[in-house]
Amino acid sequence: MTRRQVLSGIGAAAASWAGLGCLLSSETESSGSARLTARPGSPRTTGPAGLATFATGQSTAVVYVPPRVDRTRPAPLVVFLHGALRTVDFFVAGHREPADRHGVIVLAPYATSGTWDAVRRQFGPDVTTINEALQWVFDRWTVDPAKVILSGFSDGGTYTLAVGRANGDLFSRIVAYSPGFLIPVDAVAKPPV
After folding, report:
1. Mode of pairing for the β-strands spanning 173-177 and 50-56
2. CA–CA separation, 57 and 47 (whole Å)
3. Cα(147)–Cα(90) distance, rounded to whole angstroms?
4. Do the beta carbons of residue 50 and residue 141 sit within 8 Å?
5. Element (H, E) at 52
6. What is the chain's pLDDT, residue by residue, as a tens digit (193 residues)?
7. Which is nearest to 69 in space by CA: 149, 137, 135?
């Protein structure tokens, strides 16, 4: 097989997936709100540096805080939403070295049940989980409001595009790896995607 044939096949596959994404988007309607209320502010308590897991109402979250993060100085925050396999270990482990180097807090909440709620039906407890996880971090560290990034992979990428667009006044960037479709939301502001 020639290089041209391989690239043509990849292009056809990508177009097929894009078409499927459009169909899924038109069939997938969501109700409920994707709005988050947690916002960076002054920490009210302290938190440990390193890796920690904490409860968020109906779920849990993992946070990694580099040792060099000073709770009195604004730090960037990257929030990662997992795919349908509900794994965050690879993301946190893979981003630990750059997080250490740049002083970036990494937060990875878990969906309450398998994948993110609005991927299957409507926004609900997973918005609450993300909000509680963000508030937990904001209560313990000073986060730079101009450097709060939402990212996600696969189903988490789909959810990232929705929650990120609905909260463009919170997230300064949206990074979606391999999203499947677009969930309709009322967009707020226009952060770069």
Report:
1. unpaired
2. 19
3. 22
4. no
5. strand 50-56
6. 444 443 334 343 333 333 333 333 333 344 589 999 999 999 999 988 999 999 997 999 999 999 999 988 999 999 999 999 887 877 777 888 999 999 999 999 999 988 999 998 899 999 999 999 999 999 999 999 999 999 999 999 999 999 999 999 999 999 999 999 999 999 999 999 9
7. 137
For 41-80, b/e burial (b = at least 16 CB within 10 A) is eebeeebeeeeeeeebeebbbbbbbbeebebeebbbbbbb
What residue type is assigned to position 50 of the chain? G
Rounded CA gap, 20 and 160, in Å?
Answer: 19
pTM (whole model) above 0.90? no
CB contact at 8 A, 183 and 30: yes
C-alpha span between 144 and 72 (Å, rounded): 11
Three-class secondary structure assignment of 61-82: EEEEECCCCCCCCCEEEEEEEC
Give the span between the Cα atoms of 164 and 149, in whole angstroms.
9
**Closest of 151, 150, 162 to residue 124, by C-alpha:** 162
